[in-house]
Design brief:
This protein has a four-stranded parallel β-sheet. Strands 6-7-8 form a three-stranded parallel β-sheet, sandwiched between helices. Helix content is 45%, strand content 11%. Mean pLDDT is 93; it is low at 289-299. The protein has helices at 10-13, 18-30, 49-52, 54-70, 81-96, 98-108, 121-129, 157-160, 170-177, 201-217, 228-236, 238-245, 256-263, 268-271, 282-285; strands spanning 3-7, 33-37, 75-77, 117-119, 139-141, 145-147, 222-225, 252-255, 286-288. With 299 residues, it is of the alpha/beta class.
Length: 299
């Protein structure tokens, strides 16, 4: 029987992060999971709405959640870390403030859906894919990896209640499950420049540059992310970063869905890796499966 789950792609996955969307859809299909897109979804307001209009920043995600509830969805996969953060924070705020909740319901014309479970890509893989993952691996992901969580997957902890805010481990554990050696490094949750990718590339160059340098100095051969904003700053803005650093860094940046997808045999078209700015050498990243190359625990 095919499993199914609600899916909110958000704006990025239908635009600049198209390869992320491709890899998530391909991975779900490989494991027999149908992603049911939230009907008539709208932008969640990230990253500008909450800086401009408090109620609008709540009404936009609230409408998405209401539409999901109307479609009888229970779990909703939100692959974009910024969208995941905004939807989760909205649900948290409206659950604790009845007056605000009524005001938002008046704005949207829909009841607030407060029984939904919003999950990020890591949680999706943990819940829906990990139980069947060992039997699906055909190639070990052998590149030494630095797992980069960014700001929005783990903070604020009292709202998201996901992993440790300073030294998260969930993505590292998933990468080790597909054969990777993960580096221990202090930049897992440092800011990459976030939404300043267009307006302040100098800030992105400085912040993302520190992340890239630290990953390379720790011996990483690939950086793994689960956020289109992080990927844009570390991959799309690499030329700006390299000019700032005065050195050419060619370490590739992959989405977690791409790395896991490669390990279970998805090809370049199914993972979308050829759409990256910094080239990804898939032959270097993966090796044919053997008892020596697949590591299911430990560092």
């Amino acid at each position: 029987m095919q499993k199914s789950i609600g899916f909110y792609p958000g704006c990025s996955l239908n635009g600049t992060a198209g390869e992320y969307n491709i890899s998530v859809a391909s991975l779900a299909e490989t494991f027999g999971i149908r992603l049911n897109e939230v009907p008539d979804w709208n932008c969640c307001g990230a990253t500008a709405a909450h800086n401009l209009n408090k109620k609008l920043s709540l009404a936009l995600p609230a409408r998405v959640l209401a539409n999901a509830a109307e479609a009888e969805m229970t779990d909703i996969l939100v692959s974009c870390a910024a969208c995941y953060n905004r939807l989760s924070r909205t649900l948290h705020e409206l659950r604790k403030d009845a007056t605000l909740k009524r005001e938002i319901e008046e704005m949207t014309g829909k009841p607030v859906a407060d029984s939904l479970r919003i999950i990020n890509l890591i949680q999706f893989i943990q819940s829906y894919i990990l139980p069947e993952l060992p039997g699906k691996i055909t190639r070990a992901f052998t590149a030494k990896t630095a797992c980069y969580y960014g700001c929005l997957l783990v903070r604020p902890h009292d709202v998201l209640n996901f992993d440790r805010p300073e030294d998260p481990q969930s993505m590292d554990e998933l990468m080790r499950a597909v054969g990777a050696e993960t580096v221990d490094w202090p930049f897992k949750t440092e800011c990459c420049g976030a939404g300043l990718s267009v307006s302040r590339t100098d800030v992105v160059a400085r912040l993302s540059g520190r992340i890239i340098v630290e990953a390379v100095e720790r011996g990483a051969e690939a950086i793994i992310v689960a956020c289109p904003m992080c990927h844009a700053n570390l991959d799309m803005r690499r030329d700006v970063v390299n000019r700032h650093l005065g050195k050419q860094y060619d370490i590739s940046v992959l989405y977690l869905s791409q790395a896991v997808g490669m390990a279970v045999g998805l090809n370049d078209k199914q993972t979308g890796v050829r759409r990256h700015i910094v080239p990804v050498d898939t032959k270097k990243c993966c090796a044919a499966r053997s008892s020596e190359t697949v590591n299911t625990g430990g560092k």
